Amino acid sequence: MIVVLEPGDMLYLPVMWYHKVSQFCIPEDEGFVLAVNYWYDMDFSGPLYPLSSFVRNSALKAQAEAEGHEV
């Protein structure tokens, strides 16, 4: 999916929404971009996020093993 924002637009990304951001500018433009992020603590212990917990724990375990730490 590609989303193009115009001046004054805002993009809301729901929790756990993986994304990549890039910018392009008109050659005569200054190319100024401002991004404001806001995070808040969420309770991931409920029934809605078991896959997120599994993926996170698996990634942390793989990272520890790759760095030579005993898991």
UniProtKB/TrEMBL annotation:
Domain JmjC: 1-55
Matching InterPro entries: Cupin_8, JmjC_dom, RmlC-like_jellyroll
Gene3D superfamilies assigned to the protein according to its UniProt record, in alphabetical order: Jelly Rolls
Pfam family, one: Cupin_8
Protein name: PLA2G4B protein
Organism: Verticillium alfalfae (strain VaMs.102 / ATCC MYA-4576 / FGSC 10136)
Lineage per the UniProt record: Eukaryota, Fungi, Dikarya, Ascomycota, Pezizomycotina
